Amino acid sequence: MRNIAIAIHGGAGTITKASLTPEQEKAYKAALKEAVELGYKLLQDGKPALDAVEQAVVSLEDNPLFNAGRGSVFTKEGGHEMDAAIMCGQTLEAGAVAGVKGIRNPISLSRAVLQHSDHVMLSGYGAEEFARNHGFAFAPESYFFSSQRYKQWSEVRDSDVFMLDHTEQVDEKYGTVGAVAVDSAGNVAAATSTGGMTNKRYNRIGDTPIIGSGTYANNNTCAVSCTGHGEFFMRAVVAYDVSCLIAYKGYSLQQACDEVVMDKLVQFGGEGGLIAVNAAGEVALPFNSEGMYRASKQNQEETFVGIYREG
């Protein structure tokens, strides 16, 4: 039987032991463990990698600790605009949505775009119309409200400042979520979902839904899901760059990830990290920030869960 593996992230940035209470750390680790093991169970049952990454991300979207789905941050206008993408490494098919409102699980809508449309990315009203046509239920604004999110937004809403979730301006730490997996057939997949930046304006869209920047999967190389300051990840085409180093230069998965995250991104100020897996079942979890919410599980090994640099 081939190796199976899954890895997830819940955001990267200025995440230190001093920034989280013991209770918060426990809650984050429990949420990460639950999500990665839900996805792993599907792989164990012989389900495809696409199912595993979608399920893992749905679990994180449903948890208000993370900046995706229910936990999405507030925009300048006081609403929520979400982005997501999913990609199949076997066929290179992909689906993505950008700037959607009221969708409980944007990653599932992205999967519907992949499976039921001739397009890769839908945005705004059009994506929402597509959702209605395919029976997606819309949640009220109250579903996406949390006092922590509101407090975070209230600190900057009267200014032109936008704020990453992992900034030290706030006590709470949140982040983009993602998953990568390889199934028993050797197929890889990647999925990423986010609520973007607090106080973002002009329908700003980050790297998450852009295939090759925040999300990418190819059986011949790897599957990648990114987290961090999206503008830098777009400019560096990070997810595809990792794949290219493997395809064109023969790098190992870890070498390719380290080259992009620890060298290329750092050179022009890009903060964040990524998760990656290849068809052989190898996993990489590099980040150049203080911390990254992450978890992984390979074959019958124990589940790994980490937050800080040292674990």
Describe it for me?
The protein has 311 residues and is α+β, with helices and mostly antiparallel strands. It has one domain: Glutamine Phosphoribosylpyrophosphate, subunit 1, domain 1 (4-Layer Sandwich). It contains eight helices and twelve strands. The strands form two sheets. Strands 4-3-2-6-5-1-11-12 form an eight-stranded mixed sheet. Strands 7-8-9-10 form a four-stranded antiparallel sheet. Strand 11 and strand 12 form a beta hairpin. The longest helix is centred in the N-terminal third of the chain and has 23 residues. It is globular. About 3% of the residues have low confidence. This is Isoaspartyl peptidase. Keywords: Autocatalytic cleavage, Hydrolase, Protease. It comes from Pontibacter diazotrophicus. One of its GO terms (molecular function) is hydrolase activity, acting on carbon-nitrogen (but not peptide) bonds, in linear amides. Pfam families: Asparaginase_2.
Protein traits:
12 strands, 311 residues, Glutamine Phosphoribosylpyrophosphate, subunit 1, domain 1, single chain, 8 helices, globular
Cα shape? globular
What is the CATH H-level superfamily? (Glycosyl)asparaginase
Class from secondary-structure proportions = alpha+beta
Mean pLDDT across the residues is 90
The radius of gyration computed from the alpha-carbon positions, rounded to a whole number of angstroms, is: 17 Å
Low-confidence parts: 166-174
First-last Cα distance: 30 Å
The name of the CATH architecture is 4-Layer Sandwich
Reading side by side through the largest sheet, how are the strands ordered?
4-3-2-6-5-1-11-12
Query: Which band does the percent of strand residues land in?
Result: 15-25%
Number of strands: 12
Q: Helicity range of the residues?
A: 25-40%
| Largest sheet features | 8 strands, mixed
Could you name the CATH topology?
Answer: Glutamine Phosphoribosylpyrophosphate, subunit 1, domain 1
How many structural domains in the coordinates?
1
In N-to-C order, the SSE pattern is EHHEEHEHHEEEEHHHEEEE
Number of helices: 8
Give the class-level CATH name: Alpha Beta
Keywords: Autocatalytic cleavage, Hydrolase, Protease
Organism: Pontibacter diazotrophicus
InterPro entries: Ntn_hydrolases_N, Peptidase_T2
GO biological process, one term: proteolysis
